[in-house]
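As the next step, I needed to go through one protein, both as residues and as discrete backbone shape codes, included below for the reader:
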Amino acid sequence: MNRDLTTGNPRKILWAFCLPMFGSIVFQQLYNIADSLVAGKCIGENALAAVGNSYNVTLVFIAFAFGCNIGCSVIVSQLFGAKDYGTLKSAVYTSLIASGILCGILMLAGMLSCDTLLGLMNTQPKIMADSSLYLRIYIWGLPFLFFYNIATGIFSALGDSRTPFIFLVISSCANILMDILFVKCFSMEVAGVAWATFICQGVSCVLSMAFLLKRLSRLKTEYRIAIFSLPLLRRILVIAIPSILQQSFISVGNILIQGCINNFGVSVAAGYSAAVKLNNLVITSFTTLGNGISNFTAQNLGAQKYKRIREGFWAGLKLVWCLCVPFCIAYIFLGKYLLLLFMNQNSVTALTTGRQFLWILSPFYFVIAAKLVADGILRGTSAMRQFMAATFTDLILRVALALALSAWTGSPLGIWASWPAGWLIGVGLSLFFCHRQYDKIAAPKGGS
């Protein structure tokens, strides 16, 4: 069901809209968590390291899919808020065509550079073959990743966060079962983990696209719709390109950091692989909630209801901080038991590595959560230069500190400490830019 985010109590609206989005991203993360869990418990430490190693490269592709999602979602939200349904449909078709072309280019580039990227990360020889195999199968599934992300972005733009949630619950649970089936029953090892993800993402994508096209048909228009529009593509790219660059540079930074981590051996890499999946569950969840705040902001910007944007910021901040509490408690006090889902008790070095990572990062989730809410406001108001400035400052500082501190201390602890340092600088910039952007759009017009 489509939902108008420009009316009603902003706090209640955001909670009702964002919580299904939070549930969706939790289940989406189960794809990767399930892969690592089954690889580590059913195959071994090397398989866990191989899947985690490949994951950093897959994040580059996810960055492009995420950027397409955000670019389309923000523009569609603005058009939906303005009740311009004809242009809205044209924006959707334009996004699908452009994303399909981009996806084809990335598939070709990925296949040609797969082993080179793994080599740049100092991938250990004993896990190179499995890392390459997992990555190549993942690349074949990129069309599913791209079109699913476009579909979920449009559902969110229309105020519907429940439909993608239902699809993800079903496909994620199926993915866990298929992981176990392919690995335990068919003895497919790492390939089985990859093919299970491929199949389940494919089913989720097809269902999402079918429901999306049906939903669009209900939006009545009085004139012929352009299937492809260059002016709309330019508007989408203004949002999409900075988002793609942000996520891509983060992924490249993660690849550089992974290279440092691989120098400490397979056990440390395996521990990091498990812990970073738990960390990414939190960060990706908050990023998705930030996307929901972008949709809320964009709809109200389109409807010229500027005061609701500030109210949405405070409501969003309270929401993400409430969600921070259970994650912090779980990772600090129950981190060992969560990590044991991925590995065995005798993996002492890997377990110690993962616990140290979670202990250092989890208290700072309140900081990164505030940054991602502010980033959502910046994206929703198309303030992409400010958004990129805050994000790249965080990223560059984090990568530089990781490289320097790991070399100086001779320990991965220096790498873990770089995350909070980058987050603290980034949140200050994002909050500053967010405040200035609100004053810019609201003050001259008075708001409503």
Notes: The radius of gyration is 21 Å. The mean pLDDT is 83. The chain has 15 helices and no strands. Residues 434 and 443 are 14 Å apart (CA to CA).
